[in-house]
């Protein structure tokens, strides 16, 4: 059975969307995009028993035309000339519109604060999603916020290790839900911990967050009268409480968090929409058999059966002769008394 696939090749991981749901591989990619796509599709074909009938992948809106053409050529060399390209903000807005059912001429600002950059795009629904205003990209992402936290903790304890870096990244993610996180620090001499509060974390990252929200304000102002009805928050860094508070305080526009894998889901919807409908198989009606074509069931003729049939014929003729010679009797109505009540015998 044919199926469609949507791919979002992010910097922190690759998200795959099919009709069965969304799966994210949380790892940085080291392959070229075309090779990454080919490997993913090979895995899907092995899992489902056949290759997908339609594939769509997202790309940053800021990619130049030359870069897109190079990726397309690389995909052709990998045997995937049929892959569709969908801009990432459009894909995220399509997934949001599929559930929210935006009214015609609604405007949505896609605030994609990902691992390596923040992309802000304003889209207006006019049958399809069209650009409104001037999109902007800021080269600040979640990896930069990780580095700020690591620098702060290292300055406190005076030591650095790969384990400490991983702990700092986990602490940054936990501070979205907890007011304080304790980071373990293990050295040759002792094992101790460093406390990092949410207020401390927000003070560390506030300058970077303000730069990103400044860009969002510029994009909204560039749209003129097409002020967004909603701001769609996409990407892991967009979930940081300080980001949401800063947007609400400055723009006074409702902000909604996109579901996980929104861009990949939108790409899947685009692939599904462009899949041709299966041709209907015409029904074939068999003609009813004619009367003369119907098989006639004949009884086998035996001496006993022949004698029986002769007796029936002779008997029928004699009964008819008696009925014709019988005197006619006038039939009158007879009124019968109503039946009585039946009483069952006692046992």
Automatic annotation (TrEMBL):
Region described as Disordered: spans on this chain: 277-298
One of the record's GO molecular function terms: ATP binding
InterPro entries per the UniProt record, alphabetical: ATPase_NBD, Hsp_70_fam
Native source organism of the sequence: Lentzea aerocolonigenes (Lechevalieria aerocolonigenes)
Keyword list, A-Z: ATP-binding, Chaperone, Nucleotide-binding
Protein name: Hsp70 protein
The keyword ATP-binding is assigned to this record: yes
Pfam families listed in its UniProt record: HSP70
